[in-house]
Amino acid sequence: SPQARAGIISTVEVLKVMEAFVNEPNYTVWSDLSCNLGILSTLLSHTDFHPDIEAFVRDVFSPIGERLGWDPKPGEGHLDALLRGLVLGKLGKAGHKGTLEEARRRFRDHVEGKHILSADLRSPVYVTVLKHGDSSTLDTMLKV
C-alpha cells in the first residue's frame, strides 16, 4: 500500500488488512491486492522472507481460487473470468500445489490437442508452468 511504502504504517498491518478481504468477490479489490502483494514479493524475492510472502499469497488467494474453480459456471460475468485468471495466476506463481498440478495437466492437454485452453486461462497456465518448469517446458511453450 502507499502508506506502507511511505513508512506511515507497517507492512505487517497491511498484511492483516489484506487477510480481511479473503471472502471479497470483487475483481477490483483482488486486482489491487494482487498488485500490492506482487510489489512486496518482488522486494522480498532475494531475502529469507520470500517463502513467507509466497505462503501468505497461497493462504489469502486459496479460498477464492477454490470458490471460482477452473471452469466458468452458468451465469458468470466477464469480471468473474478476469478474477479467475488473476487468482489462478497468483496461486500458480506462488507455488500452490493443486493449482500447479492442474495447470500442468491443462497445459499438457492443450499441447497434445486434447483440450484447447480458453483465452482467460492461457496466461495463468502458461505463467505457472513456465515459472515451475524446466528447459523442456520452455521448448514446448515456444512451439505452441
How would you sum up this structure in a few lines?
The chain is an all-alpha fold and 144 residues long.
Keywords:
71% helix; single chain; Zincin-like fold; aminopeptidase; 8 helices; hydrolase; 144 residues; 0% strand; mainly alpha; globular; Peptidase_M1_aminopeptidases
Tell me about this structure.
This is PSA aminopeptidase. Residues 4-143 form the ERAP1-like C-terminal domain. Keywords: Aminopeptidase, Hydrolase, Protease. There is one protein chain. With 144 residues, this protein is mainly α. It has a single domain, classed as Zincin-like fold. It has eight helices and no strands. It has helices spanning 2-5, 11-19, 27-43, 50-68, 78-93, 97-111, 119-131, 135-143. The model has no long low-confidence stretch (mean pLDDT 88).
